[in-house]
Amino acid sequence: MLQLKMLVxxxxxxxxxxxxxxTADQRDFTDAFYYGVxxxxxxxxxxxxxxxxxxxxxxxxxxxxxxxxxxxxxGHVDRNHTGDxxxxxxxxxxxxxxxxxxxGVKHYRxxxxxxxxxxxxxxGVVNQAGVDFYLNLITAVKQAGIEPxxxxxxxxxxxxxxxxxxxxxETIIQQYKHYADVAFSHFGHLxxxxxxxxxxxxxxxxxxxxGDYAPGIKQPAxxxxxxxxxxxxxxxxxxxxxxxxxxARFNGMVSITLNTDFFAPKNSSKPEDVEAAERAAQxxxxxxxxxxxxxxxxxxxxxxxxxxxxxxxxxxxxxxxFTVSEKLFIKGTFDYFGLNHYSTSLCEPADAAYQASVPKGxxxxxxxxxxxxxxxxxxxxxxxYYVPWGMRGILNFIRTHYNNTxxxxxxxxxxxxxxxxxxxxxxxxxRSYMNELIKAVxxxxxxxxxxxxxxxxxxxxxxxxxxxxxxxYYVDFDNPQRPRVAKQSAMxxxxxxxxxxxxxxxxxx
Length: 509
Ligand code: GBH
Hints:
Shape: globular
Number of strands: 17
CATH architecture: Alpha-Beta Barrel
Oligomer: single chain
Low-confidence stretches: 4-27
CATH topology: TIM Barrel
Number of domains: 1
Mean pLDDT: 94
Bound molecules: ligand GBH
Structural class: alpha/beta
């Protein structure tokens, strides 16, 4: 018995030593609150996306898209909620302008719905009502003194394209380019910041790998890689189109927004954990960022690991290859780096039990066991652990891996279930994440030029319906008027914007 106790004690001591060393370099990212302000040129904003706020799913010539279908099918979304009405921004966009002005933001990020503008991309006919809706919105945003930051594609693929072979059918590249052309030609004179895609990782992995997002397809070994390949080509086409045809006239910036956790080694004194963290990052953000920001091709470690896990008869890899001319075409197709960041994961090499627990394919190919520290605070969303130092970590990752490209954080925010107006946890989250961003800029010299809160108001949170709320403003989804009501966090963020960050209280006034 005594021996057993000694053994237990021994393991406790050993594991506590490991814990200390595990957080050694993470402690660099957890130092005290830092007072500092950002330059006037830094842009502060809020974010939304078409399907999450607009409603009017079948009005004025809009066609059905994959999220309409997914929601209407039933069985995919909590409580079978849909975006049929959502915040009704299609009709109430003037109310959105009112709260944007109230917050004092410098930019407003929203997305265009392909299905409104080109309802049938196989014919390419433009729907004037869809163009007019966005022209009114963009004009009003500009008149309010706010810069629109426009996402071309935030997940709402026209259903007809899904039925036509989805992102696997190469004709989608010309169809996407045509849609981008329509958007640039109609709105380009008013828009300074463009994004081609929101989170291709989520589109391909959650849509076609694990299938918890529309269209709900579960092919984790093949489709994410095949579809990502064409999405990258679509992105490059749109960027070149802007570069050759519109840049001289409009002088805007075109990029893509990538979502990523910060990937930290579980134990930073173990080289294999450090390596696992790098590999996880290359499989996540690097999958898209390496071709676009580095050399036109996937990260070498990703090519190696997918190859060795492919086990194909002919020895080929499940990861497709770019031709030499495609690489040249893709490399450098950016004007800034769009980053959506919410949380952090801990990394170590995958063991057999972990490999057996994940779907064979993308996740298994990575060979990294991803975990969360149980001590971290959790938001209402299952993936959203509150790890402020991860913001500083991921911004430094981008600085060192992508040549300190200018970054706009295009999303960051936190959830609850009830949408309380007294959202002190959201103030705490945003305050500490923004503070880490300010440290990254002022101490580490990361080239961050903008920050955007997800979201200005509670909205349709995809497979979670209206059960998880991210808003700075509360929306009552039982009230047909959908009034927008400021939470405490809205007034907090307004203050941060007015102060340009966190001025040292010693020098206020
Ligand atoms: C963003 O996605 C979206 O752009 C936005 O529309 C959305 O409303 C917002 O964030 C809040 O969710 O490892 O299987 O648990 C966030 C992207 C979604 C990526 C959840 C990670 C968890 C995948 N994240 N996902 S899983």
